[in-house]
């Protein structure tokens, strides 16, 4: 799905008789047009996440949706990193790099809308499975305690027996 302005631009129906501009320019025109109209689209997370290939790549940074497709080849950090952050909130990844001011200014070109925050899946936190107190564990514990007590006694007994045996000889 694309924004209204983008739909018009990417539809190929340029009725002025001129050939359509390259896709990167079309995205910029679309972004500009929707900016001017003051209407940025609100996208659902699933929709944004579905644009996850080199030729169609959308990312989410700080609640905003960026179509970085025309930027894939130009990104100094490479296209793999951009692809790797599709389908998630890339804010931390973006900030961790420490992008420059000029990088941040560049972002406006690719801004196509906002993300509907309520559609972002909640982060799953790892919950350590509760240990169910089972009889098996209790039994193992008891056996270890018994062995801890018995083994030294057995060793002592054995030593004593050997001593008695060698003495009597
Ligand atoms: C629209 C979004 C983005 C734009 C416009 C952008 C732009 C840039 C620019 C201009 C640079 C050169 C260094 C600088 O000026 O800071 C850069 C480097 C880099 N970017 Fe991005 N970037 C974007 C998103 C991301 C994301 C989401 C990641 C994910 C981790 C990322 C990872 C990197 C990496 C690894 C470098 C190389 C840093 C280095 O070699 O020092 N970028 N980016």
UniProtKB/TrEMBL annotation:
It is found in: Membrane. It comes from the Eukaryota. GO terms for molecular function: heme binding; metal ion binding. Its main location: membrane. Keywords: Heme, Iron, Membrane, Metal-binding, Transmembrane, Transmembrane helix. The keyword RNA-binding does not apply. Coiled coil: none annotated. The keyword rRNA-binding does not apply. One of its GO terms (cellular component) is membrane. Residues 40-116 form the Cytochrome b5 heme-binding domain. The chain crosses the membrane at residues 142-162. Belongs to the cytochrome b5 family. This is Cytochrome b5 heme-binding domain-containing protein. It comes from Zizania palustris.
């Amino acid at each position: 799905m694309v924004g209204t302005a983008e739909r018009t631009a990417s539809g190929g129906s340029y009725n002025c008789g001129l050939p359509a501009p390259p896709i990167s320019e079309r995205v910029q025109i679309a972004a500009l047009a929707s900016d001017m109209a003051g209407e940025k689209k609100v996208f659902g997370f699933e929709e944004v996440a579905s644009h996850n290939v080199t030729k169609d790549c959308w990312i989410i940074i700080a609640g905003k949706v960026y179509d970085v497709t025309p930027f894939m080849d130009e990104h100094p950090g490479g296209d793999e990193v951009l692809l790797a952050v599709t389908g998630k909130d890339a804010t931390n990844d973006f900030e961790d790099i420490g992008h420059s001011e000029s990088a941040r200014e560049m972002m406006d070109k690719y801004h196509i809308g906002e993300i509907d925050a309520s559609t972002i899946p909640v982060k799953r936190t790892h919950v350590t499975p509760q240990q169910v107190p089972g009889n098996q564990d209790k039994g193992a514990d008891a056996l270890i305690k018994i062995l801890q007590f018995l083994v030294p006694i057995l060793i002592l007994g054995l030593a004593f027996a050997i001593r008695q045996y060698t003495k009597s000889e």
